[in-house]
Design brief:
Layout: H1 11-18, H2 25-46, E1 63-74, E2 77-89, E3 94-98, H3 105-112, E4 120-125, E5 128-129, H4 135-145, E6 146-149, H5 161-171, H6 176-189, H7 205-217, E7 223-227, H8 235-250, E8 254-258, H9 262-265, E9 270-275, E10 278-281
Parallel strand pairs: 3-8, 3-9, 6-7, 7-8
Antiparallel strand pairs: 1-2, 1-4, 4-5, 9-10
Helix pairs in contact: 2-6, 5-6, 5-7
Amino acid sequence: MCSREQCPETPREKCRRAGRKPKTRLLNEARKRTRLNRKVLIGRLAHPAPARRYNGRGQPRMISLRGVEKFYQHGPSQTFVLRRINLEIRPGEFVSIMGPSGAGKSTLLHILGMHDMAWAGEYFFLDQPVHKLDKKRRGEIYKQNIGFVFQSYHLIDSLTVYENLDLPLSYRNVKKSEREAIVCDTLDRFQIVGKKDLFPNQLSGGQQQLVAVARAVIANPALILADEPTGNLHSGQGREIMELFKKLNSEGTTIVQVTHSEVNAAYGNRIVKLADGWIVDH
């Protein structure tokens, strides 16, 4: 881990002070390796496959939901949160899930993120039958493929900002020296270098939101799931985050966001609308 004095002395900042473009060899190597590992893992997941679902170009679906339902039991009665959800999301799409409060948007996102398994139906992720996998296997797929931006941040209170950012990289077996370069670059990119040694409870809501977004994107995941990612940011910060998502999507990252904002939804290429647990338009 870099010390308080080392992070401001990253190659990126040295080059900036010298008026040169940064040439961070470790950072570039780490990014290439992360992208390669992601491609290799996707290839392993997609072949062989017991039940293949293709888009029009012969690629496996990133996400395929069939008849997904979720309800809560109250004595003899049931309260449905999601009803007969059928949804396909292709690799490289940027999908916005919209609808009124209580429509089931966040519930659907947490099912996609494999946090909630108390539901009925079928869910295939890169042709892997998530509905049949045990908790350990789901966890492996999640850690290797998905970055999640929680509406309530979900930063680990006992870890500093630096350590929270380092954690997703450790799941992907990135070397320590490479992790240091990536984390310091990300701290600089999100302008939170000065917060690296602070704990979540020492940050404002907006600062925690920035760290949560940084943690979700730092390992270059194949899929980013974001629950109201700009909800606690001022307009300028929110615009920067959405521009970042747009850039990542243009580079091939699949993004699914829950949002009430028409402006944020316009950054994507498809809108899925929910009402009372049903998909009413997609």
